[in-house]
Amino acid sequence: MKHFLTLFGFVFLLVACKSTKVVMNNEDPSQNSIPSPSKNDVIMTSSSDSKPITSIELKETVEFLASDELKGRNTGTEGIEQAASYIENKFKSYKLKPYFETYRDSFKVGEKNAYNIIGFLEGNDEKLKEEVIILGGHYDHIGYGKAVGTDSIANGANDNAAGTSAVLALAKYFTKTKSNGRSLMFVLFSAEEMGLLGAKHLAKKLKTEEINLYTLLNFEMIGVPFTDREYVAFVTGYDSSNMADKINEYAGTNLVGLSEVAKQYQLFKASDNYPFYEEFKLPSQTISSCDLSNYDYYHHVKDEADQLDYEHMASLMNKMLPVIERMSKTPTKEITLHEN
Fold first, then answer.
1. Residue of 238, 229, 221 lying closest to 22 (CA atoms)
2. Residue 340 lies in a domain
3. How many domains does the chain fold into?
4. Predicted structure pTM score
5. Which CATH number fits the domain that encloses residue 106?
6. Which of 12, 91, 184, 314 satisfies CB 3.0 to 4.6 Å to 96 for a cystine?
7. Is 335 domain-assigned?
8. 140-151 pLDDT, tens per residue?
9. Domain presence at residue 283
């Protein structure tokens, strides 16, 4: 998540949120770098592994992206190059087509090379396939942070290897089932931590190309659960559209809600959904299960893979599958902005 909070605001947030009421409403070459799950891992994740998206696959992705070898995945570094290659290899193994000539949507950040990684799956409905749903999350992080002992690598497990693992899992599922009526674009954004630069670049580019965009769902910091909410995750920009209502309708459960903390600190504007909202004036929102009140390691060197709850992540994403399928098949665009 883009670093926009001041130190004062962050401290105040951690204190204030305790009293805040929440309103309801084929073989992959990069796998060689990933440890095999232990027997304990298999036992721990058995309840979710009967589902299409497993805690094991999410954990494997997070452990690779948030490993010390990638040194925090800062834009323009060798670490983020490794991350980009990993994502490309995953897309290739799923037989997911690139949207442009290659998976890489390149842009410059000063003198540094940067690239969003984009795959595309055409819809199976002859009419609806002309419309596109973007499923996104950023794969960069800040590189290094304030040292704790001898550790200064800000690995960015929750922020946002977690969201990246979710997008990859969705890409794997839909390329296998091809159960989407509308076309799906899977986007892993870069340079989010530098001011949403990858999202800004792509939003302008797609707007120029006059893509028929329906909506965008962004996944950010989904690695830890809430313990005091009647929903699993919140939707940023809750009041801007009927997105949350439709997600809950499609899920058949109270899956998402409103976080007053996220609303107070304008988290709607703090992630890669926002440039698309600005360019297209369409529902473009982020799903998250962390508004900083339930995780102490935002932009911290202890944001490590072993801090995350993979059962929670798998449960959330499996509940999102029928939501996205239904979203892609409705005869009309049911998710709409609210009038001001």
1. 229
2. no
3. 1
4. 0.87
5. 3.40.630.10
6. 91
7. no
8. 999 999 999 999
9. yes
